TrEMBL record:
Keyword Plastid: no
Gene3D superfamilies in the cross-refs: 3.30.160.20
InterPro entries, alphabetized: dsRBD_dom
Keyword tRNA processing: no
Domain DRBM per the UniProt entry, residue ranges: 6-78
Entry protein name: DRBM domain-containing protein
One Gene Ontology molecular-function label: RNA binding
Organism, as annotated: Lactarius akahatsu
Amino acid sequence: MSRQADPVRDLNNFLQGHSRGNLTHLLSWETTHSGPQHQVTHYATAKFQQREIGHGQGLSKGGAKAMAAVEALQYLQQMYPN
């Protein structure tokens, strides 16, 4: 059985396994939504030390968080290489 991609899990794993120690407490999320009930768009923002580092939007809250997590992980991997 193959493991499905989970950007939020990958982001958390990166923060937990960092050489500077567990950094997960520095990550926070903001989520919102807009549109009519039958066509809602969800938005997510990943923040690290209160700084916005990832944005995403999707038809579900999880999809929006996944998009934001991809951006956030790319940013953190550049800023904090292991």
